[in-house]
Amino acid sequence: MSSQDINEGAHPRDAHPLLQACNISKQFPGVKALDGVDFDLRAGEVHILFGENGAGKSTLISMIAGANTPTEGEFKFNGAPVQLNSVHEARTLGISAVFQEFSLIPQMSVEENLFLGAETTSSGILQKGALRRRAAEILDDLDFQLPVNVPVDRLTRAEQQMVEIAKAFRSELSVLILDEPTASLTQHETEQLFRLIARLKADGVGIIYITHRMSEIRRIGDRITILRDGHYIDTVDAETTSEDELVRLMTGRVVGQIFPTIKFDPQQTLLDVHDLKTTDNGVRGASLTVRRGEIVGLAGLVGSGKSKFAQACFGARAISSGSVTFKDDDVTGLSTRKMLDRRFLYLPSDRKNDGLMMMRPVRENISLTSLVSQPVSNGLFLNATGESRMAQSLAERLHLAPMRIERTIEHFSGGNQQKAMLARSLTREFDLIAFDEPTVGVDVGTRAAIYSFIAELCEAGAAILLISSDLPEILNLSNRAYVFYRGQVQAELLGEEITEENVLKHFFEREAA
């Protein structure tokens, strides 16, 4: 589907505002997240909210969705002032949000999550049959192939993202808010989402879309509003505004080339995996090698097994057969603690549930992998001074914002949470680092910094395993790439063989022998 297809149907430039935010400010303790921001959304358009992590995008959409209230300013809907004091009030106007951080109950089924708080009842009795039928209808209409009676904790992250999106469709829509909706999706699932967006636009739904991916802005955007440090900067046309101009407006400075030039120098093999199988059958006989001084990319559809493979190598997923050799030692089935001791680090894709202690300060989250080594440890005891100095230094190196390492990490933006987790790779010397979706929810400037950071580690002699659903990352950062399909390695690509066409053709089925 082309950008022209997506932009056909409605004519947003000629429409009156469906939703307006007028002089919106929001004060949190010690932080003014928004300061006099104006924003408007027209029926049948995709309006991109663009800005660095911490710019105020999430705060603005949380207020439009009714999850927060402004300190100053007002909202208008179809020209009339409205109070959005709760999610329920927003939904009565047809405003629904799909936030970057999931709000699913893991132990509950897909159908139960879809209608949580809006269950079908008769005389106070839950109508499970009606609920199941309606859930199936919504999923079928969206072309989401999900079992309605399965607990969501058994789903992949991409499938959970689909459940979050489907929740917005349980009632009639006028405004849909999508916050980094493709962060966990590969190209195939993203195309599916874009087809849905095209349909919504044709129906006159206004869509507020947050993304840091330039290709998506070009593909689906009509207008772009840029926020910086809680202030409104400008609203520009998505079709005619250059990428360099967008980055300048976002950051206040010119950001150079996003992907660095990397000097690969492959040396001895550090990781050698043969015919690996996991007990959950997520990996079914995969083999690969990773050498010091190179970046090996793992590509494939979400659910293809690429993340489970790295987790199994690190000791975070049970292995049924096969072997994992690290630095010439058989480490098959060793614990994650023992793998860390051998200088192998895995950084997960789901920072909220798997990577971070959300209610602990940044300092503790950064130092988590180095509690038994200098400068954090003095042998039997923790060195609080050494830990603070190290965490402060790494926070400054990765430009954490705000620079408050004693603040609990749940109060930081998603991108700054990602920075804190990535900082762990610098707390001690690691020989092999597996980055699983390292730029999820990260703005363009930070994305470029993370890429340079990974390149520096590689050029310093570390072995890098890069697991990514963002195909440009695989194409531009890897000197070798493996494509996963249904738990197996479909292909190994070297150097100039790593092209979009070559990677994509192995996503779905094996080549004929």
Fold and architecture overview:
By secondary structure, this protein is of the alpha/beta class. It folds into three domains: 3-94 and 172-251, P-loop containing nucleotide triphosphate hydrolases (Rossmann fold, 3-Layer(aba) Sandwich); 103-170, no CATH class; 269-504, 3-Layer(aba) Sandwich (Rossmann fold), CATH 3.40.50.300. It contains 18 helices and 22 strands. Strands 6-9-10-3-11-12 form a six-stranded mixed sheet, sandwiched between helices. The longest helix is centred in the middle third of the chain and has 16 residues, at 187-202.
Count of helices?
18
* CATH architectural category of the largest domain: 3-Layer(aba) Sandwich
Which sheet architecture does the biggest sheet show?
A: 6 strands, mixed
**Main β-sheet, spatial strand arrangement:** 6-9-10-3-11-12
Radius of gyration: 23 Å
Instruction: Give the name of the CATH superfamily of the largest domain.
Output: P-loop containing nucleotide triphosphate hydrolases
Please tell me the total number of domains. Answer: 3
What is the overall shape?
Answer: globular
Find the CATH topology of the largest domain.
Answer: Rossmann fold
Percent of residues in helices: 25-40%
What is the residue-mean pLDDT, rounded to a whole number? 87
Question: CATH first level of the largest domain: which class?
Answer: Alpha Beta
Strand content: 25-35%
Structural class: alpha/beta
Q: How far apart are the first and last residues' alpha carbons, in Å? A: 32 Å
Q: Provide the low-confidence segments as ranges.
A: 9-14
Task: Give a topology summary.
Blueprint: H1 3-7, E1 17-28, E2 31-42, E3 46-50, H2 57-64, E4 72-77, E5 80-82, H3 87-92, E6 95-98, H4 110-114, E7 121-122, E8 125-126, H5 128-142, H6 157-167, E9 175-179, H7 187-202, E10 206-210, H8 214-220, E11 223-228, E12 231-237, H9 243-251, E13 269-278, E14 284-291, E15 295-299, H10 306-314, E16 319-326, E17 329-330, H11 336-341, E18 344-347, H12 351-355, H13 362-367, H14 384-397, H15 414-422, E19 432-436, H16 444-459, E20 463-467, H17 471-477, E21 480-485, E22 488-494, H18 500-504
